[in-house]
Amino acid sequence: GLRKMRLVSVASLLLVADLAAFALGFGLNLRTVPHGYNSRQLAKNLHTKVADRYGKNCGFARKCSKIAVNAADGRNAGSKSTIVPDSDLSGAWAEDGTRSKRWFEETELERQRKVVSVRVSHILITAEEMAEALMTQIRSGDDFSDLAKVISACEQSRAEGGAVGWVGRNDEHLDSILPEPVRSAALQQKPGDVIQCKSPLGIHLVKVEDIMYNLSRSSHPRAKPFGADGANYFRPLREMLDKQQGYKLTYWLETMGCQMNSADSERMAGQLDGMGMARAAEAQKADVVVYNTCSIRDHAESKVYSYIGPQAERKRNGESVAIVVAGCVAQQEGDRLLRRVPEIDLVMGPQYANRIGDLLEDVINGNQVVATEAAPIAEDVTRPRRESDVCAWVNIIFGCNERCTYCVVPTTRGVEQSRPRESIRKEIEELAAAGYKEVTLLGQNVDAWGRDMEPKQRFSDLLTYVSSVEGIERIRFVTSHPRYMSPGVVDAVAASPRACPAFHVPFQSGDDDILRAMGRGHTVEQYLQVVDRIRAVLPDAAVTADAIVGFPGETEEMFQNTLALMTRVGFDVVNTASYSPRPNTPAARWTEQLPEEVKADRLKRINRLGGEIALQRSQRYLGRVMDVLVEERNTKIPSQVKGRIPQGRPVFFDADADQCKGRIVPVRIIDAQAYYLVGEQAGPPR
Predict the structure, then answer these.
(1) What's the whole-model pTM score?
(2) What's the pLDDT at 24?
(3) Which of 14, 52, 294, 330 could be stapled to 256 by a disulfide with Cβ–Cβ 3.0 to 4.6 Å?
(4) DSSP letters of 301-361?
(5) CA 110, CA 117: separation in Å to the nearest integer?
């Protein structure tokens, strides 16, 4: 049963019999252990099971823990570093430690192979000169639909703004509009792309609006017996639904991590609502429990397993509950999660957030499902369930193409995929019609929006384009990258009264050598040029950032350079973290790892300085009357409401929540703390 188990010491070999015996005794089916499932992984799994039952101080639990720490399964043999990724993505990194171009290309080809249909519009013309002129107009931001209504020679689609609808390679009935070679070319594109194609009908300008793709997943029936006596087993939800006609399933969704995860959770909740499910009052009462996970740091990843434990116990006791692990930990670990926690039903990467309904169909019927392959991002078919009715997230780009040596995002969220600007504006218009007042344009790197499109587009133009939506009072955006943030973005914010003067631009380190090792692609001087441009055009703007301390090889002098940069800039907020080695990243394998006590000391010092600077920045608002968009009642002091000024600082003040929520209220600031303000109402809401 322990096939090809690779052991790194004679001592480990002597424990194989013990490990196998305890594996059988604690519910690990050794017949399902695949090639490469080594002693370290097995010991970690057994440690979890033994510790859960007998306590972490049990002798065998300690023995398993020791093996899990010491066994390196051949990957760090001969290395002094004790930091070894749990998995590897072959081809993801080049020999020089940068992200492999081949990996990006193969990922893109994998996405293209899944596409079966695209929704397109087209303009038919006869002269090449006209085609080039139209492409120039499209690049400059002219509306494709308006151009089609005026210029297109296609009588069938002209009146509809060139809209053809969904097309596939074998849709022969569309040959009179889009011949097969044109359809085939369109199937290779991404949403937002505009391409030129020739056919016997003329020259086609084809715009891809959306895509439909085959859902790739590994799905296998779950073996029913679980307990040693076979009395308990995993009961599929279908069994319960068949017994209780008309039963309405309930769900619980727990979100961990960044704003992208929050937005993904809203999309998943919209899908679950669309399936007819209702939100449960608590996780222990839900039929479907979804954990949308974060793997940016080891602590965040470890937290996942503590959440899963009580749900796994419910399943072992015979309850019909489906356990779903979504997000970055799911993408990172894949089917290894099923081996570590066999009670899990569905493992799905973030690229499947708007396909959770399709995946759950398999789960409801009793299958275990893993969906972590690269996939295109299609527009949502259901509306997200928003957590706020005042402010909303709007995704503009998914994934990341950067090569930061510490970051798991490119391998957990995939390559960049920009949404079409028309789709983004349409979502914002729908939010405005529903009464929302603020939107945040969301992406791992918003400045990269449009660079993966054909023709390429610019984020500054998108910002201007969506800022004209009536009914939306404020537009924010996160996160910017100093390597790509252009002066045009600052100018677009300055030119639009709806765009908030708040810029989140992570610097990560104030030392050029560390920035180079991180693969950030910019220097301290280049970062300062970005900040100076913001301050020159918008002197009162807020500049916030992220920073990492304790990166491998960071000396005290290098750390002092980071503190000096913070003092020089005067950040409104700096989100900090000590370096945490992550799987599938080059920095995790380097030997120059810093002791935890050094990282903790530096984190404490940077936070102290960050708080001092934040307080100084807050004090500039004292005595000023600021416009505050009220978001909610202050749950700690019910007589107060909470809102934010354009720069993003939270403000608390006494007011009637029912009267002020969703409205802008002038507030005089009377107290300034490091990360929030206190005020008094200075005028009626508007």
Answers:
(1) 0.79
(2) 40
(3) 294
(4) HHHHHHHHHHHHHHHHTT---EEEEEEHHHHHHTTHHHHH-TT--EEE-GGGGGGHHHHHH
(5) 15
Going 603 to 608 to 614 to 618, the CA torsion angle's sign is positive
Beta pairing partners, 397? 418
Does residue 213 contact residue 168 with C-beta atoms inside 8 Å? no
Structure tokens at 36: 């490469």
Confidence of residue 298 (pLDDT cuts 50, 70, 90): confident
CA 85 to chain CA mean position, Å:
21
CA torsion angle 6 11 17 19 (round to 10): -70
Give the Cβ contact number of residue 454 at 10 Å. 13
What is the reported pLDDT for 35? 33
Label residue 268 exposed, middle or buried (CB < 10 Å: 0-12, 13-18, 19+). Answer: buried
Q: Distances in Å between the alpha carbon of 148 and those of 152, 160, 180, 663?
A: 5, 8, 21, 40
Q: Which of 538, 545, 553, 449 is nearest to 190 (CA)?
A: 449
Triad 26, 28, 31: Cα angle to 5°: 140
Omega before 455 cis (within 30°)?
A: yes
Backbone angles phi, psi at 172, to 5 degrees: -65, -25
The alpha carbon dihedral of 301, 587, 525, 566 has a sign of positive
For residue 476, the SS3 value is strand
- The separation between CA 260 and the C-alpha centre of its own chain, rounded to angstroms, equals 4
Q: Which two tokens stand for residue 618?
A: 């807050």
CB of 566 closer than 8 Å to CB of 613: yes
Residue 51: predicted pLDDT: 54
Do residues 460 and 449 touch, judged by C-beta distance below 8 A? no
What's the length of the chain?
686
Q: Name which of 307, 345, 324 is nearest 271 in CA terms.
A: 324
DSSP run (H or E) holding 475: strand 474-478
What's the rounded Cα separation, in Å, for the pair 478 and 540? 18
User: For 48-57, what is each residue's pLDDT tens digit?
Assistant: 555 554 455 5
Residues 2-15 have pLDDT tens digits of 333 333 333 343 34
DSSP-based three-state secondary structure for 397: strand
